[in-house]
Structure formats: C-alpha cells, structure tokens
Amino acid sequence: MSSTTHETEGNPLFPIILSLVAAAATGVLWAYANPIQLVPGVIQWRIFAFLPPLVGILLGPKSGFICGYLGTVLWSLLAGTFIPFHSLIVDGIMVGLTGFVPGLLFNPARDATDRKALIKIALVCAVVGLVMVVAVSASLAYLGIFPFWWAVGYLGLSDIVPMVLGTPLLLLPALKILKSAHAGGVSRF
C-alpha cells in the first residue's frame, strides 16, 4: 500500500502552530493519561511516546523537535519531576531529537509510505529511542536519581516500545486526516 502526500507552499505557520498544539497535548497526555505505572509515581508506560516522531514525519523535523522538547518540559512541570539541568537540557533535547530525526529522514511528500517504509520508520524510532534512553539514563544516574541500567530498562520499556509500535501504526491514518484537512498539501517545518 503506497501513500504519498503533496508538499506545497502552504501556510508556513500551520506546522509551527500544530507542533505547539501537539507539544501541549504530549505534555498533558504524558502527565495524566498513562495508566500503566512501571515505577509508581516516577516512570509510567508512555503510550503516547509516538507523538514526537509522528509529528516530525508529518510536519517536519523542527516541528517534531518542538513537540518532543516542549512536551517533555510541560510533562515534567505537570508531573512534578522538573529538574532544570535534566529537563531543559538532557531530557528535553533528547526527546526533541526523537521527533527531529524521523522527520529529517522521512517525508511523506517525497517518500512512499508502504510496508517497507513503515518498517524503516520503526527501526529509526528504535535507534533514536535507544540513544535518547541511554542519554537520559546517564543524566539521571549522574544526578543520583536512578542507577543507570535500572533507568535504561524502565525508560526503554516506557518510551521505545510505544514509539516503535505507535509511529508506523498511526502514520497512515494520520496522513489521511491531514490530507482531508488540507487537500492541497501541507508545508513542513
């Protein structure tokens, strides 16, 4: 099944505004809509961890970064886990990259979204997720919050699994919604 979208010179503010809305939704969903607690009160299974890579692919790498970075900062403020060094620098930037890298590598306007592409998207999400988890775990270990390998295990389950499964699974339906809302195509940011 092949699906592509047209990239046009549409309103350049649309992807920026939508990425800000997605960042707010990401932060709120991560704070309040994660029913499975891996470490109660601290690490929950982020069933919405697919949002930054999905936004990055649909709206562009910068939009994906905005969604991941601001979503992380908002989540940490709402969840009461905000640590300036960790949240603003390590966690924010690394989660932002989980939206940036897939958006940089995949563009539905030029790339087919067939089964092979969806598998590649899942693999990219796995690699960028692993890099993010290792960096965030190192930061948490450095700050004396969690042991490194303990954090890698729980954060890997929390973030990588939903990214690998959710991003390719929801890409085609999200493309259809975006196409129906903007038949002429969407500019990427």
UniProtKB/TrEMBL annotation:
The chain crosses the membrane at residues 12-32, 38-59, 66-83, 89-106, 118-142, 148-172. It comes from the Bacteria. Keywords: Membrane, Transmembrane, Transmembrane helix. PANTHER family: UPF0397 PROTEIN BC_2624-RELATED, UPF0397 PROTEIN SPR0429. This is Aminotriazole resistance protein. It comes from Hansschlegelia quercus.
